[in-house]
Amino acid sequence: MRQFLAGSPLVRLAWLTILLAGFTVSAAAQDAATEVRAFMEQRNRDIKAAIGRMDNDAQEEEAVRTLVNSGIDFDEMGRLALGDYDADLTPEQRAEYVETFAAIVRTQSLSDLSIYKAEVTFDEVVASGGKARVDTRARVDGKLFPVRYLLHQKGGAWWLYDIILDGVGTVEGYAVSFQSVIRKRGFDRLLQSLKRKRARLESGAGS
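Structure (tokenized):
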């Protein structure tokens, strides 16, 4: 390194540029990781506080549901669940699918509150190139479960697009089911099935 830096001014400038670029990328990654950690920790606090209010007032349920789902990128989650089949959809098909898919996830999101009430430890946050991974541990009924959150940056904000609980990914689970239906019966059959499921869930939620 000393020999390179002792070379011509042009060589020294080139190396200095490389070194500074590396430092800038590293610093930007650290800033992004700090930003993601702050976002996730605040989200955890807000959800717990909202659930606490819901325990005392059932009318708070819709507010909690909105809060839980507000940071999820359903477009990305739905796209990943379809895999290569997503490229075959028209804009109209994709919009209808994402809207239906999001409604199902939203309706089911409060079916088990234990994960939201769990004591959460934030272990590692890694962010680079507009994507981030947040590794946590959640204590539920005295047992620790690893929970990994995957996020990406869109429109200047961070959005969740997958949650991996104890090694099982949310997107992976949907992908296995959705792609199997498309492969055997086609996309229209999948959409019809999702619409029926949405109707059942929303009817039950409203009864």
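Residues 1-6, 11-27 have pLDDT under 50 and may be disordered. Residues 2-206 form a domain with the Nuclear Transport Factor 2; Chain: A, fold (CATH 3.10.450.710).
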